[in-house]
């Protein structure tokens, strides 16, 4: 009694698997209210301290002091290198382009200059043409354990625990293990 071989069409199964894999790629989309108009547009990455026009109106040259500026604008992103006479508020808006390249859409620098008495001398916004593009550091601090592969993690401890290892029974009152005698 030999059973005849049955041929199975595997194409519908493969098509279903391919469709399932394609649909899982849609899981990264943000919720509808926050979703950009273009499905392939990534969200904007805001960095630094963005100063608004309303905040800048609160700072008056010749009247405002350092404390007033800090209350209105917050702590500066950077101060003068050799003298504390200028405060810099630096911000940028960037976005990931196709092929994972980071593109800066908007970069702003607001400079608040102080006189010797600590009163605001000048408030100006550096124009785009007069400032160089600042490249932010994209390196990440390595986390211990992330360098190992899955196989190293699974099989790395084999042989470390077992007979002959340093695991000896301890009794109450013994300092370093052993039988406590």
TrEMBL record:
Gene Ontology annotations for the cellular component aspect, listed alphabetically: Bam protein complex
Region spans: Disordered: 160-181
Recorded GO MF terms: protein-macromolecule adaptor activity
Domain named Outer membrane protein assembly factor BamE: residues: 48-122
Pfam families per record: BamE
GO BP terms, alphabetized: Gram-negative-bacterium-type cell outer membrane assembly; protein insertion into membrane
Keyword list, A-Z: Cell outer membrane, Lipoprotein, Membrane, Signal
Protein name stated in the entry: Outer membrane protein assembly factor BamE (Lipoprotein component of BamABCDE complex)
PROSITE patterns with a match to the protein in the record: PROKAR_LIPOPROTEIN (PS51257)
């Amino acid at each position: 009694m030999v059973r005849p071989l049955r041929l199975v069409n595997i194409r519908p199964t493969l098509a279903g698997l391919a469709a399932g894999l394609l649909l899982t790629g849609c899981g990264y989309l943000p919720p509808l209210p926050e979703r950009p108009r273009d499905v392939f547009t990534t969200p904007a990455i805001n960095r630094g301290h963005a100063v608004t026009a309303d905040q800048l109106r609160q700072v008056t040259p010749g009247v405002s002091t350092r404390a007033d500026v800090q209350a209105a604008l917050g702590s500066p992103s950077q101060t003068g290198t050799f003298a504390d006479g200028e405060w810099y508020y630096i911000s940028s808006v960037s976005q990931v382009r196709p092929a994972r390249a980071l593109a800066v859409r908007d970069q702003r620098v607001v400079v608040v200059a102080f006189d010797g008495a600590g009163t605001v001398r000048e408030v100006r916004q550096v124009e785009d043409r007069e400032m160089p593009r600042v490249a932010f550091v994209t390196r990440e601090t390595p986390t211990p354990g992330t360098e190992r592969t899955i196989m190293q993690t699974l099989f790395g401890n084999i042989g470390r625990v077992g007979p002959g290892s340093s695991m000896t029974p301890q009794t109450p009152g013994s300092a370093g293990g052993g039988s406590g005698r």
